[in-house]
Amino acid sequence: MGKLFGVVVALIAIVSAYPIVAHWYVQPIDISTHGHAIDEQLADTMAEAGLSFLAAQLLLGFFVWRFSQRKPGAKVWNIPGGATLMVAAAFILVGTEILALGVLGQKAWANVYFTPPKPDAMQIQAQAGQFAFYFRYPGVDGKFGPLHPDKIDEGNSNFFGLDPANDVESRDDIVSAELDVPVNHEIQLLMHAKDVGHSFYVRELRIQQDFVPGLDLAVHFTPTQTGKYEIVCTQLCGLGHYNMKAYLNVLSQEDFEKWMKQKISEQ
Amino acid sequence: MEQTLPQPAHLHAPPEGFLRKYVFSLDHKVIGKQYYGLALVAVFTGMILSWLMRFHLVWPNAKVPGLDLLSKTGAPGGVITPEYYLSLLTMHGTLMVFFVLTNAPFAGFGNFFLPIQIGAEDMAFPRFNMMSFWTTAAAFVVLVLAFFIPDGPPISGWTAYAPLSAVGSDAGPGLGWGQNLWAISIGLFCIGQLLGSLNFIATTLDLRTKGMTLMRMPICTWAWFITSCIGLLAFAVLLPACLLLILDRMAGTSFFIPSGLVVSDRLQNHAGGSPLLWQHLFWFFGHPEVYIAILPAMGIVSHVLVTSMRKPLLSAKVIIYSMISIGFLSYMVWGHHMFVSGMNPFSSLLFSFPTLTITIPATILTLIWLGSLYGANIRITAASLFALGFISMFVSGGVSGFFLAQPSIDIYLHATYFVVGHFHMVMGVAAIFGILSGTYFWFPKMFGRMMNESLGKLHFWFTFIGTYCIFMPFHYLGLVGNVRRYASFVDDFMPALMPVHRFVTIAALITGAAQFIFLYNLIYSRFRGKIASANPWDGTSLEWSIPSPPPWNNFGDKHPVIYHDPHQYGVRGSKGDFVMQDSPEQIVTG
Amino acid sequence: MSATAITTTISPQTSSPHLPGSIEASRSGIWVGIFAIIMSFAALTSALLVRQGSGEWSHIVIPSILYANTAILLLSSFTMEMSRRALARSTGVTTWLAVTLLLGFSFVSGQYLAWRHLASQGLYLATNPNSSFLYVFTGMHALHLLGGIAVLAYLLSHVIGGHTSLRRHLLDNTAIYWHFMGGLWLYLLFVIVTRL
Q: Looking at domain A122-266, which CATH architecture does it have?
């Protein structure tokens, strides 16, 4: 049965690796400027992890196949190099891995988090609440009016709790259930949580960031392809969590301006 | 005039009467079995919950007969609602992580075997030991009670992030008394574990018999000792966290809840708390907790492998030092659960380095296990199959960690099924394999009877292949961006992935059903198994030097004397190719 | 021989036929337990620091009775030490233990009075973050001290009986715990005065 184990482990390893090698399950297209670094990092890690996985499983399978259920009383001996070799191998293999992945991978992270948004980035506020996303544009005055949680009234579509009667800046704010943006323009998303923790995830944008109640967080990105992409909530927020989503519409500059004009006229 | 009461020569008197012998026992062996039994109840409950979850994901409108009796609102007509799905998910995680993975390998086997393996008559504090079990049992009852209250169990996951878990029933079903019961249960659990860790540490340090130096302790003893040190610090932090959560929920404080929250149209009367504080406190406990789950399994597997391979591991010392460094590093990595949480992004980078570094001792361990197999003469038994299977599972679960340890990749993979695949491989499979290996190995000693080997091997093959079928596809799903903790898959790209989910569900049902082979084997063998000798596996450590099952005071009235470490295999001993620790004979190699 | 609480001679158990290691184990146990308690209060302290960092923080006037309570607790550590020495000389243990117990009770009562003083100022557990932490710190400390008081009561009940020998290590371990409670209180007082 030792031989059977060896064979089964090898088969499992090969069968598990196959879908990866054959690219059956891959990320969707990358429509961001920073995503390429992430995808490269992922591919490098996959190669390293895959090799380690296959090597370890095949070695395990081979050793059990070869060294199980030999004659009772058969001589046993140690692998040449012994523990020292194993420790050295671990340090070298993992040492290079840490250097390669950790140090080189910093750049991908830095692209997202340590590069400030450009001064002309378009600011849009996103609010996450049980169980919908809403987006607010500052309007012609370029300023966001203050939020008043006690004035939130979903029935009258006052999702953000704006008070245009008393706050001048709120009067031209545009609220939308979809995130419409112009292509190739940097967007800075200001993130506000209405009730509990939520998260903003767009696979194609390679962006994921939690909304934290009480914290003013922001992410910035530049979408590079037009199209309709899903925004989903990835932080458990209650019974409607699975259904909490919105759409990111990346439009051409022309279409975006048309859309914006339309929204302003609707106010 | 002074009188002295006669001092007992034992830690406690020989047990008499049913209650003292089997219920409120001071005997570490009985307490160990009680912990294991509790874990058994918890694991089958948790497994059934996972069946319900998998069922619901692929057959959302299926009626589960009888479920509406358990919860009229959660499963009307037997159809699981989204909120009930989250309740099942929360209870599955809580039961499995706390009541199975912390109980069985550590409190269960550790309680039974640590004192024996160091040559002691019992744990240092038998009364504390009994209290720790009954506190844990009480915690279990409190938790399970949540199923039976009208509003149902909490829906905030085993991680219970604030403010969802802290604001109360405004945030949704199950978040009223269900969440209170959860917090109280976990608080009690912490107390039980702290008492247990206290016992393990004091016993290991001070009750070792003559000749039993620290380095002569079996590797699994070391694993329990290191685990108890980790547990002491970790549970000591979770306990105040649970207290603060309870205060936020029941006393109106605002440790975790900021101002201005509008939940279900109600402005919450709180101010200034920090949701991230909960995450920091929880994960400061939570990450060491997963090492608490895996270290005893590593120890058990090392122990079983040595006996099964008939040769020592390449270096027991290296294994022990690697386990110690894992324990140490485990306290530096908690932020890797919070890369995209809104924590300072610089901290994320800081946390990723020790996370990647912990791969070093983990790799050392794996390479030592693998390298030790070379030149061995492995006896294939149910116990050794699960130990070998552990190595395979640990590799699989470990390599997916490479991805999640890097913040940049975590941006994409966080909260997807990739994470679910990772932690199930290491905890839900590898750690369980350690428990199963230990069960087949030590059952003869604990109960005086052998388990059925054929059934054990059948159980192994179903479980080994089955768990790969269940959890390997999770990684593929995660790579495509399948988000976790969803009661239903309504995203546009999901229909194409449903065949994968169906495959997983069917695999889960079959693999789960196979666990009943194990349960049957356990129960049947307990009463009808072949009578076991004192040393059925030709082992060297002290548990094999006493009868199966051991007498109430383990070594009779003798204190064993130790002459060797427990790795004397592949030598010419008087009993065969091994020499027992307490045998004064000299070692002749070759 | 008549046994009054003061004149009974209590002899220390020096060479009891204990299991090898069990006395050392009880000493290890106390230190391990103390370490766990330290970790818990460290967690609470870090919660305080995080909370302070997020603004909206006002200052509380500390009830002055806390200082009197501190003196009482420190005095009780002194009397606890005296009871340890008394055991070595085999005389007066009961008195010193009883005084320590009384001082412990006074401390806890004094803490309760501090709470009432806070309440009279309108400061309750949930009033503001300062008060929350103040109540949690003092409450948790008092809870642990009550544990120590319970052990003291148990020890006293043994010696007042008049014909039981008190094992030295039991008293020593209790003393270690008691002094730790004093030290912990000094630390908490420092945090309260400087941070709250």
A: Sandwich (2.60)
Tracing tokens 């008549």 back to the chain, one arrives at: C2
Residues of chain B with pLDDT under 50: 1-8
- Residue B577 — φ and ψ, nearest 5°? -90, 30
Parse chain B into domains and list their residue ranges.
24-256, 529-590
**C127 vs B: CB within 8 A:** no
In degrees, rounded to 5, the angle at the alpha carbon of residue B487 between the alpha carbons of residues A241 and B341 is 40
Q: How far is B462 from chain C (nearest CA, A)?
A: 42
Contacts of A147 in chain B (CB under 8 A): 260
Give the nearest partner residue to B392 out of A9, A194, A208, using CB atoms.
Answer: A9
Q: Report the C-alpha gap between B370 and B374 in whole angstroms.
A: 7
- Note whether B286 contacts C: Cβ–Cβ < 8 A: no
Cβ <8 Å between A209 and B340: yes
Residues of the domain holding C191: 25-54+67-195
Residue C19 lies in a domain: no
C136 touches chain B (CB under 8 A): yes
Asked, for residue C60, whether it belongs to a domain, the answer is no
Distance from the Cα of C160 to chain B's closest Cα (Å) equals 13
The shortest CB-CB distance from C40 to any of B2, B121, B240 is to B240
Query: For residue range A26-82, what is the model confidence (pLDDT) as tens digits?
Result: 999 999 999 999 999 999 999 999 999 999 999 999 999 999 999 888 889 999 999
Judging by DSSP bridges, how do beta strands A179-182 and A132-137 pair with one another? unpaired
User: B-chain residues within 8 Å CB-CB of A238?
Assistant: 83, 86, 155, 164, 171-172
How far is it, in rounded angstroms, from Cα B332 to Cα B318?
21
- Considering only residues B192 and C9, tell me which one the structure prediction assigns the higher pLDDT: B192
Encode chain A (267 residues) as per-residue pLDDT tens digits: 999 999 999 999 999 999 999 999 999 999 999 999 999 999 999 999 999 999 999 999 999 999 999 988 888 999 999 999 999 999 998 888 887 888 878 888 988 899 999 999 999 999 999 999 999 999 889 999 999 999 999 899 999 999 999 999 999 999 999 999 999 999 999 999 999 999 999 999 999 999 999 999 999 999 999 999 999 999 999 999 999 999 999 999 999 999 999 998 887
Would an 8 Å CB–CB cutoff place C21 in contact with chain B?
yes
In chain A, domain spans: 2-69+79-113, 122-266
CATH number of the domain to which C130 belongs = 1.20.120.80
Find the residue in B nearest to C37 (Cα): B236
Buried b (16+ CB within 10 A) or exposed e, B288-327: bbbbbbbbbbbbbbbbbbbbbbbbbbbbbebbbebbbbbb
End-to-end CA distance of chain C: 56
Using one digit for the tens of pLDDT, what is the confidence trace for B242-268? 999 999 999 999 999 999 999 998 999
Query: How close, in Å, is residue A185 to chain B by CA atoms?
Result: 21
Q: How many domains does chain C have?
A: 1
Q: At C24, phi and psi to the nearest 5? A: -60, -35
DSSP assignment, residue A150?
A: G
Q: What's residue B1's pLDDT?
A: 36
C-chain residues near B244 (CB < 8 A): 44, 47, 136
- Give the whole-angstrom CA distance, residue B66 versus residue B174: 20
Question: Any CB–CB contact under 8 A between B271 and chain A?
Answer: no
Check: complex ipTM more than 0.90: yes
- Using a CB-CB distance cutoff of 8 angstroms, which residues of chain C are in contact with residue B212? none
Identity of residue B285: F
Q: What six digits make up the tokens of B369?
A: 């296990």
Contact C21, B207 (CB under 8 A): yes
Cβ <8 Å between C163 and B2: yes
Q: Tell me how close the Cα of A264 comes to any Cα of chain B, in angstroms.
A: 28
C-alpha distance from B583 to closest chain C C-alpha (Å): 21
Which CATH architecture is the domain B24-256 placed in?
Up-down Bundle (1.20)
Q: Check A149 against B262: CB less than 8 A apart.
A: yes
pLDDT band at C90 (very low <50, low <70, confident <90, very high): confident
